[in-house]
Structures are given as structure tokens and as C-alpha cells.
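anyone else get weird line breaks when pasting these?? whatever heres mine. first is seq + C-alpha cells for prot A
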Amino acid sequence: MKLLWYLIFRLFAGIFVVFPFWLLYLISDFFYYVVFYLIRYRKSVVINNLKKAFPAKSETEIHRTCKAYYRFLTDVMVESLKGFTMSKESIIKRHKIVNPEILTTYYDQNRSVIGVSGHYGNWEWGTMSSGLQIKHKTIGFYQPLTNPFLDKFLKKTREKCETSLVSIKTTFETFQANSNKACSYLMLADQSPTNLERAFWIDFLGIDTAFLHGPEKYARLYNLPVIYIDIKPIRRGFYELELIPLTENPNELKDGELTALFAQTLEKRIIDNPKYWLWSHRRWKRSRTNS
């Protein structure tokens, strides 16, 4: 069955390779109506999350933001499929890092960096575009897919873009094995942590929120600079990525301060334009009291 799903996926990916982007967005518009009006995919989760984060917004405003979110979500869906067959030139053009030069000094010093980001904008193209635009060896941590055929295909497409995908289960071993190389470690840092005892609790969008301890842990362990990857949607299908330094020396910060800096930076982006964040994720399903 897993092989069958893989073959179906490859068929869709193969079809998308010949579709121009204008046609992809017509498909996205169709998907929006299906997902939002017919399937109503996690619509209650999105509404509840928006109400928690923006209690002052009216029902009309919440509904408007919800609709805008689903329109963008279906864009990310078709862009993700297109990403498997995009040329390197197209990836760089559409997911462009505007200031890659700020990493040059670290590279020249043979010093690794940790790049942190959230599920904001098109995060799916990040592991492809980063490896093509910076000098560092790029390593992206991810949760392996349960389908081994899809998982192998995903890793293969990223390797073509000079990025190595590594399971989050081998994070410690990966940092250790590459400690003498100039690497850029890519970490999505806004997922709900499974280990709440080790999580950092931050006031995020006015809600007591658990954040992963991993990025701060490894930044401190190897004293690595931490860069926020700010993904800015410019227009449909085009994004600019700005690299924003959060700290040069994480060990000079108090415990949890680095995680708070990341959370505050992401929070500003969400408040400025909330439709680009992953609201269908059950971000606040657990609280500090039941951790």
C-alpha cells in the first residue's frame, strides 16, 4: 500500500513539472474551496487558535483571517509539489536569500551556524533554497516520513539542492560528527515539543507556550551563532529570506533567553500578517499545568 501511495504521489509530482505557475495557482484556488468549504480541514482548530491569539478581534475579522490563511495554505500545498521538480535557477529566483553574505565571516572562520525559523511563509522550499545560496554545508533536521519510499524521494530531491536531510532522532550524533566542519543547521523551532519537562515556556501571542529546547541546547553546547530565517512573501510564488542574527555567543545569554528571542521575532511576523503562519497546527493542545 505504501508503494502504491508513493507511485500516486510521483504521478502527481510528474504532472506538476509541466504545469506553469499560473496554472498551479488556478489549481490552488480550486483546492481552497474544497479544503475550506467542503472538507473543512481542521477549521475548528484554526478558528480556536486565532481566537486565542487575537482575543480583541471580532468574529468577522477572525473569519476573514481564517479564509486568507486557507488560501495561502493551498498555495503552499501546490508549491510544495512543484518544488520536487523545480530547477535550481527557479528555486533561487523564487526563494531568494537577500543577505547571504552575513554568513561569510563564519564560513571563513570554519564556524557553523544554526538557522531557526517557524512554519511561516513557504517553509517547505527552505531546505532547497538554503543549500543553493550559502557556502556552508547545509543540514536540515526533519521528522522522517512513515512511508519509506516517499522519505527516500524527499531526501534525494533535497540532496540535489546540496542539502542533507537528517532525522531529528539523530540530532546529537549529527552535531558531534560535523563539529569540525562549517555547517548550517536548519531547525524549524515552533513545533509543540513532546518533552514538556525540558521545554522552554514563553509568553507567545499572549499565551503561555512550550517551545522546543533543542535549538538553544545545541547552540549553547557548541557556542554557535543563531540566525533567524525571516521568510517574507513578496507576491504569489515569490519569497525573500532575510537572515537576522539573534546572538553571536549564546552562552552569554540567560537560560531560555535565546528561545525567547526567537519566539518574539516570529511573533512580530505573525502579528504583522497572520495568514502566513500554520494555524492548523494544534500549537496549544497542552498547557504547563498538564505537562
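and prot B, same format (seq, then C-alpha cells)
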Amino acid sequence: MARRQHGVVTRRDLEALGFSRKAIEHRVRNGRLHLAMRGVYAVGWPELSREGRWMAAVLAAGEGAALSHSSAAALWGIGTERAGGVDVSVRRECRIMRPRIRARSRPSLPAHDIVVRLGIPVTCPIRTLVDRATELGPSALERMVNEADKRDLVDPETLRTALDDYRGEPGVRPLRALLNRQTFRLSDAELEVLFRPLAHGAGLPVPLTKQMVNGFEVDFFWPTLGLVVETDGLRYHRTASAQARDRLRDQEHVAAGLTQLRFTHHQVKYEPAHVRRVLSRTARRLAVAGDG
């Protein structure tokens, strides 16, 4: 009939193909077209899929419109859409008041922040995260960042760097605060300087550092206790090969009878009491086991 996406077509497309007002109304009456939103029709069947509903909302909002905020997060698979309507951002000055559409006039929204996924214009993952950071609490936002990383949409380090291009946006501050915690990394020298007093305070002797153990370089090692401590600078982002190597290393250490602990760099610097407490309990347990 006319160019259509996800089962919907605009009145403008129909008219461009030569359909008159009467012809369109005739097709509505005989069930070949169903009004989905003003100026947008479902073709052949009144029930739209989720993607069809999104496409209808974008088409109804007109030129420069794209799925955004919670609806964009749902399309990317990193969040849940808010009930009651579709979130759409429009790159022009406008005032759109339509049922089932939450439209935002955003003439300053850069064109490069709009991409196409499944045929639907949508804000890119980074823009979507920046937008949602204005609406979500820290825990929900952290889950979104995690999902974006797991789906290989954007990793935390890349996201943190990209925030420089969004300076001044309302969502940047909460995102940066979250990412500084997640991607925080100490240099090896700084890490050792901070970690040694924690180990000493937990009753542990001076550890060996950067030793080869079971064929892998470890951060801290106590051979008399059979204790290995590893530290991670990144909380989430690990390539598939890195994850496989981590599993293999852990398995080799366990098979050799070693106890392994893992802390983030953030914990070492900002949560020393927790690190010291875990080290102390582990040291006591290993000492008892050794005496036995």
C-alpha cells in the first residue's frame, strides 16, 4: 500500500502516493487501516507490537522526533519503559499534546545523538544514559550502566570519557559520580602504598607483590598462608577473553589449595575498614587451619 515500518504508515505517506481523504476514510471503514495516533495508521490489524507503538509515536511527533528516555532505554534493552505512554524527543521547537506520547521539545539535541535501531529513530546509548540519569536514583542508574556494558553498547571507561562532550547537561553529574566509583583505578605504586598498611593492620606479614603463582601474576601473595589478593580497577567491563582468563586463574588457585580474595581499587582507597576487616578474618581462619 505505502511505505510502512512495524505495521504503521503516516497519512502524509498515503497522500504522497495519491490516496485522497475519501480513499483513506474508505480503508478505515473497511478495516484495512486503523487509526493508531493522529495522522498515523496501523495497516491491516489494529493491535500494534511494542515496536509498532514506538514507531507510531515517533511518526506522530513529526520531523526530528526520536524515541528517548525510558522508551529508548527499553529499546536498547537496558531499562524499563515508564507506564502511560511513549517518551519522544523532538529536535525542533514544538508543543505536542497527544495521548500516549510524552514529547519533549529539544531543538539543541545534536543530530549525531540520534541513531536508528530496528528501523526506529532513537537516542544513542550514551545520550539515553545521560537523559535517564536525570530521572533515576543511583541504584537504578547503576543497573542501567551495567546492562549497557553487558550488552556491549558502551563500557564504563568509554562512557566516562564521553561525558566530556555532554558537559553542562543535567544528567552528567550523577553519572560522573557513579562512574568515578566504578572505573576508579590506582597506579600499582599507589595501590601498594595504600594496601600494605591495611594488611599490616589485619595482622598479616608483608606480602610479596607481582609474583607468578600457578602461572599467573598476582597482585599480593602470602605463601606461608596460601593467600592471594587481587585488585580490580574496573567493576564491570571485562572482555570475553579476559573473563575466561580470570576463571582459569581462579580455578588454578583453588585447585592448588590457595585462598583468593578480590577487592576493587575503590574499596582499597575509600573503604579501608571493610578491606582490613575481611583480611583480618581471613588471616585468623588461615592461621587456625595452619595450626591444625
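btw re prot B: Residues 188-291 form a domain with the Endonuclease; Chain A fold (CATH 3.40.960.10). The first strand starts at residue 8 and ends at 10.
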